[in-house]
From TrEMBL:
Cofactors, names only: Mg(2+)
Organism: Novosphingobium anseongense
SUPFAM superfamilies: Duplicated hybrid motif, Enzyme I of the PEP:sugar phosphotransferase system HPr-binding (sub)domain, HPr-like, Phosphoenolpyruvate/pyruvate domain, Phosphohistidine domain
Domain PTS EIIA type-1 per the UniProt entry, residue ranges: 22-126
Family label: Belongs to the PEP-utilizing enzyme family.
Protein name: phosphoenolpyruvate--protein phosphotransferase
The organism's taxonomic lineage, starting at the top: Bacteria, Pseudomonadati, Pseudomonadota, Alphaproteobacteria, Sphingomonadales
GN (gene name): ptsP
GO molecular function: phosphoenolpyruvate-protein phosphotransferase activity
């Protein structure tokens, strides 16, 4: 095939690719090419082709030439953090363009002020093509030829066409954030029992379904239609199992974390919204805006965490010898990570270690003569660069995991060096980004907060920081890196801002706010173990939602009167075989010991929908949230339910255990489950029947609450699911986040109906969904007749304090007004206007 011409996409200064201030481009890890410093904001096609990718943020575009080459134009460096600000997309995927056609426009001044560099790589991706640039270091005009590209070597051994699969299935991605690292890792895990070759097609591309990085590069987002294709003897089973798993949402994000929190237990979606000025220095030079990744405020001194790459030998001592070194390191890391079941970050890193595409990329680097360490670094950094240039902010955040695996592998190859970070007391750690392994090396006693120039609110370090109570602000831009070590820095507790060397008045205001909050928290903690009684004598139980033994310990320390919801999914998820009865019983016993005899309400397995189990495959469902989940799935596998009942009975004392059934819709389900429970009790010789309650998560259960209360020993409202079903607002859909508000009058009316039904038969009723953890909602819940609140462990002291300030009789008019409201915002205004009056 003849040479193809590359033309300048805009007026600018032509430079060698090696001058780009980004190693992945400069070292041609992504492919050969040139760089241009733009003098205008209109980007044109450098050759004829078809648009293959347009970044959602508008900062890059890739077109495919007729010879198969993919040409990437990436405007500036680190411009993805601008999140589309200053960019305009002109073309769409699939558009056919001619050389010189306009592809993108951007505000040269705005992007230039906020980007790390405007130097723009023009790269022919991959190793299959070579680029020959004409003379560089000169000014060029748009449309002027600047080089040629051509296929590299013989391509005759490539497959002539696609392989016809033995089985194929189509569906749409239901996950809120699409296929990012955690779901991709679970896709690979789902396929482990099968031999079939499975691919996923979508967004105009195709990827090996066992390769996390290949899946990430497809950029499969919420609602994207995909095709799963399989070839081999067990292709039908493999494809159907994977389709069922993806259609069911792969796994609940909170459950996958293994921390026992619902998403609403940690940081609300409203708290995670992007600051409108993120990454910009405000008019006040002492304030830098970012994005809140973990809640809280802190005052301390700046401490720059610098990541220096270890020097590695470039050339190896033969392919076979270096391959053995690399495989030994990968296996050592794999074994280390495999010892952390339920640890989401370890699972993601383990999937990277087992990624067949990455292993092949490393082997290719070894074959070129590189050492084991250099091969690992080259392959992992190339994949990280591809994710960063994808235009998808969530995928860009996953690049840190690849770099963390690189760091760990090189440590194993060269000999791990103990990394002790000498932090000052009250350190506000400042870095370009922080890797998970770096986070765990920080001294928690001296760590006040973390602030990063890049990163994202859904990164693994953000999850770690939130779970450890470390305030964190990300995406502050390069301005934060100019803060000198030792400078007084404040992380604002409300707005996602960093105050640098704050003025005395600002510092005094911050300290006053933090002092008041600290005194309030201390007072709440000091009284957390006391009974929770309103000012007019009504007893309200405050229990904790738990998803692990550690949660139970935290709950007891924070004053919880017991566990109002023990999520048992953490025992069943993330594995290829179900837990044994003995394993379950031992875990329940450990939870019971952590709570020192306090009551525990164990929710039976709530799998299906967004929490599928690989070893309990279910048919692909158009709408899994309305399908075989919760008690429906358990009753379809009565042997699994019976075994869980037996484990609960043998693991917990009779006076401590309660059992609760999820997703009940009518009496028949309750009766069927109760019959299985009584049979198990008779078989194991249980002396006293176990209290059996139900969760009110469906409108039918709320409307039938009075009938349900005739036979259920108690009722507990699961506000998260009930809200989504009442308002027809999928809680995983980011466009509906604000709509899915449990304080909507329609939802509260079902709360009231359920409470009335419970009272008719002398049953108690609780709330165990996210709304129970909101102290602002306490007055309305008490006014509706709720007897028990089950909250996240950290929220126990604050909720108990809120209850003690209430006059229960005064809450009833507030609840009545809320039921007569017309919107959730109206209810929240009522709470804000009247809460203090009712608390007096």
């Amino acid at each position: 095939m003849t040479d193809a011409i590359l033309s300048a996409p805009f007026d600018g200064w032509l430079a060698p690719l090696g001058e780009v201030p980004d190693e992945a481009f400069a070292t041609e890890l992504l492919g050969g090419g040139v760089a241009l410093d733009p003098l205008e904001g209109t980007v044109r096609a450098p050759c004829n082709g078809v648009i293959a990718v347009v970044a959602a943020t508008g900062h890059s575009v890739t077109l495919r030439h007729q010879n198969g080459a993919d040409i990437l134009i990436h405007i500036g460096i680190d411009t993805v953090v601008l999140r589309g600000s200053g960019f305009e997309r002109v073309v769409a995927v699939g558009d056919r363009v001619a050389s010189g056609d306009v592809l993108l426009r951007f505000d040269l001044d705005q992007v230039g002020r906020n980007a790390r560099s405007l130097l723009t790589p023009l790269v022919v991706l991959g190793e299959d093509f070579e680029v020959e640039a004409f003379a560089v270091d000169r000014r060029v005009s748009a449309g002027e030829p600047i080089g040629v590209f051509r296929p590299r070597g013989d391509r005759s051994d490539r497959p002539a066409g696609p392989v016809v699969p033995d089985h194929l299935c189509r569906l749409r991605i239901p996950l809120l954030h699409g296929i990012h690292a955690r779901p991709a890792a679970r896709i690979a895990a789902t396929l482990k029992p099968f031999e079939a070759q499975v691919t996923i097609q979508g967004n105009g591309g195709e990827a090996n379904a066992r390769s996390v990085t290949a899946l990430l590069k497809l950029d499969l987002r919420h609602g994207t239609e995909i095709a799963i294709a399989g070839s081999g003897s067990d292709a039908v089973l493999a494809v159907e199992a994977l389709a069922a798993s993806i259609a069911s949402g792969l796994a609940d994000e909170a459950a996958a974390r293994g921390d026992g929190f619902e998403s609403s237990d940690v940081v609300s979606d409203r708290e995670l919204r992007t600051h409108p000025d993120a990454g910009a220095v405000t008019a006040d030079r002492h304030r830098i805006a970012g994005i809140r990744a973990a809640p809280g405020g802190a005052e301390g001194v700046a401490f720059r965490l610098r990541s220096e790459d270890r020097l590695v030998p470039e050339l190896g001592h033969g392919v076979d010898a270096e391959h053995l070194v690399l495989e030994t390191a990968i296996e050592a890391l794999r074994q280390r990570l495999a010892k952390q079941p339920g640890n989401e970050i370890a699972e993601a890193h383990l999937a990277i270690c087992e990624d067949p595409e990455l292993r092949k990329a490393m082997d290719d680097q070894l074959a070129s003569g590189l050492s084991a360490a250099a091969a690992a670094r080259a392959a992992l950094r190339a994949e990280a660069a591809a994710l960063r240039s994808s235009g998808n902010a969530i995928l860009a955040e996953r690049a840190a995991d690849l770099l963390d695996v690189e760091r760990q592998l090189i440590g194993l190859i060269l000999g791990e060096v103990a990394s002790t970070v000498e932090q000052p007391d009250g350190a506000i750690v400042i870095a370009e980004d922080v890797l998970p392994s770096q986070f765990v090396s920080l001294d928690p006693a001296r760590l006040a907060a973390i602030v990063t120039a890049g990163g994202g609110a859904t990164s693994h370090v953000a999850i770690l920081a939130a779970s450890r109570g470390v305030p964190m602000i990300v995406a502050c831009g390069d301005a934060i890196l100019d803060v000198a070590d030792g400078t007084v820095v404040v992380v604002a507790p409300v707005r996602a801002e960093v105050l640098v060397d704050p003025q005395p008045a600002a510092l005094a205001a911050f300290r006053a706010d933090m002092s008041a909050a600290d005194q309030r928290a201390r007072a709440e903690a000091a009284s957390a173990q006391e009974d929770c009684i309103t000012r007019d004598g009504r007893r309200i139980g405050v229990f904790a939602n738990c998803g692990s033994v550690d949660d139970a310990r935290r709950a007891a320390i924070n004053g919880a009167e017991g566990c109002g919801l023990l999520r048992t999914e953490f025992l069943f998820l993330g594995r290829t075989t179900p837990p044994t009865r003995e394993e379950q019983a031992a875990t329940y016993a450990a939870v019971g010991a952590a709570l020192a005899g306090r009551p525990i309400i164990v929710r039976t397995l709530d799998a299906g929908s967004d929490k599928p189990l690989a070893y309990l495959p279910t048919p692909v469902e158009e709408n899994p949230a309305l399908g075989a989940r919760g008690i429906r799935l358990s009753l379809s596998r009565p042997e699994v339910l019976a075994e869980q009942f037996e484990a609960i009975i043998t693991g917990l004392a009779a006076d401590q255990r309660r059992i609760m059934l999820p997703m009940v819709t009518d009496l028949a389900e309750l009766r069927a489950a109760k019959a299985i429970l009584r049979d198990v009790e008779a078989r194991v010789g249980a002396e006293n029947p176990t209290e059996l309650g139900i969760m009110i998560e469906t409108p039918s259960a709320a409307l039938l609450a009075e009938k349900m209360a005739e036979e259920a020993d108690f009722l507990s409202i699961g506000s998260n699911d009930l809200t989504q079903y009442v308002l027809a607002a999928d809680r995983q859909n980011p466009l509906l986040t604000a709509m899915a508000d449990p304080l909507h009058p329609a939802v509260l009316r079902l709360f009231a109906q359920a409470a009335k039904g419970a009272r008719a038969h002398g049953r108690w009723i609780g709330v165990c969904g996210g709304v129970a953890s909101d102290p602002a909602a306490t007055a309305i819940l008490v006014g509706l007749g709720i007897d028990e609140l089950s909250v996240s462990p950290p929220a126990v002291p604050a909720v108990k304090s809120a209850v003690r300030r209430l006059v229960a009789a005064g809450c009833e008019p507030l609840a009545a007004a809320a039921l007569d409201a017309t919107s959730a915002s109206e209810v929240r205004n009522l709470v804000e206007e009247h809460f203090h009056a009712f608390a007096l």
